[in-house]
Design brief:
- By secondary structure, the protein is of the alpha+beta class.
- The strands form three sheets. The chain has an eight-stranded antiparallel sheet, sandwiched between helices. A four-stranded antiparallel sheet has the order 1-4-2-3, with helices on both faces. A four-stranded antiparallel sheet has the order 13-11-15-16.
- α2 crosses α3.
Length: about 350
């Protein structure tokens, strides 16, 4: 990447851009921009995109549809939350990503009696989960992609194949959200639910997405999204594709907790038509921890094809071929398919 940006690495040169590439770096990057007078998203914008409660309050203020939500403090009780939001509901940390720490509560007894002040609660939304990835230069949206969560937290397909009216509504919501939040440069990752009454906003991240989506963008659109992010942060002219060349998808491998006693089928999975890559880090004898979020896996299957159906079929055939046999630490055995 250095060769593409030679002027960024001159000794003693003032920084031309400060890019946040992870969730935890969003606020520090914004603070550094302000301190060093570098153009880009300021601390207020970063805070609205980092704190889930603040982003929901902002979205509601601008009329963006979102689930009912409630802040939580030391005085909040389970009964109060159930009365405000009904059951089931969702508890989530205000500053986490990848669904880490998110709890689905179906009964009043499942709500912890002691609720941390870093939590917030939301009513449960029934709909298809998806995301929107956007590249922005000086407030101008230059690229938009819609991602299908084929199986939330497990499998993604790029681009999402929506009906025209649904795609129009999703794009409109995304544009309103990005503009109302005041995002100036870089990349956003918006998660939402597609319901029978239209799209409903869930969360926004002011950084590139995880879940191997950057790789899928490259596979489907034929450009380097990481270079594009840096050029957007620099405010440089950048040519970006407006339509995809192909469909691509990923399915993450994680067999659950236990000790791996047998692993088979990787060779068969590699030979499935449309499969571009099989990555499996699990080995016989490894101890696998429980999966705590979408960013945790023991590998993945990546596929590419001319149609969504081709990609989905390749992913499903490949993942069914991979079998990981586990032995629980309690010495009880079970077989789990990735």
């Amino acid at each position: 990447m250095a060769s593409a940006f030679p002027n960024l690495f001159e000794a003693g040169a003032a920084p031309r851009a400060i890019a946040a590439l992870t969730e935890r770096s969003v606020i520090p990057a914004a603070w550094l921009r302000e301190q060093l007078q570098v153009r880009g998203n300021d601390v207020d914008v970063a805070a609205r995109c980092r704190d889930k409660l603040h982003m929901k309050e902002h979205a509601k203020k601008y009329g963006v549809p979102c689930a009912d939500f409630s802040p939580i403090d030391a005085r909040t009780t389970p009964v109060q939350l159930a009365k405000r939001l009904g059951l089931p509901l969702v508890l989530k940390p205000r500053d986490a990503s990848g669904a880490r720490g998110t709890t689905f509560v179906r009964a009043l007894s499942d709500i912890p009696t002691r609720l941390g002040s870093n939590l917030m609660a939301e009513s449960l939304v029934h709909g298809l989960e998806m995301s929107v990835e956007t590249l922005i230069v000086d407030g101008d949206v230059r690229f938009v992609n819609l991602t299908e969560y084929l199986l939330p937290l497990w499998a993604n397909v790029v681009p999402a194949a929506l009906l025209p009216e649904a795609e129009r509504q999703v794009r409109a919501l995304n544009l309103e959200l990005v503009r109302s939040l005041g995002v100036q440069r870089g990349m956003t990752h918006v998660e939402l639910f597609l319901t029978t009454s239209g799209p409903v906003f869930s969360e926004i991240a002011l950084r590139p997405p995880g879940g191997l989506l950057m790789r899928l963008l490259q596979e489907s659109y034929g450009f380097d999204p990481w270079e594009a992010v840096l050029r957007c942060e620099l405010g440089e002219p950048v040519e970006l594709p407006q339509s995809s060349e192909a469909y691509s998808g990923v399915w993450f491998i994680h067999p659950g907790p236990g000790r791996v006693t047998r692993l088979q089928g990787l060779g068969v999975a590699e030979r499935v038509a449309g499969v571009e890559e099989i990555n499996c880090r699990a080995r016989v004898g490894d101890e696998i921890s429980a999966r705590g979020g979408s960013g945790e896996s023991t590998g993945h299957v990546l596929a590419r094809g001319a149609t969504r159906a081709e990609v989905v079929g390749s992913l499903e055939r490949a993942r069914r071929s991979i079998v990981i046999e586990l032995e629980a630490l309690s010495a009880r055995r079970r077989v789990a398919r990735s």
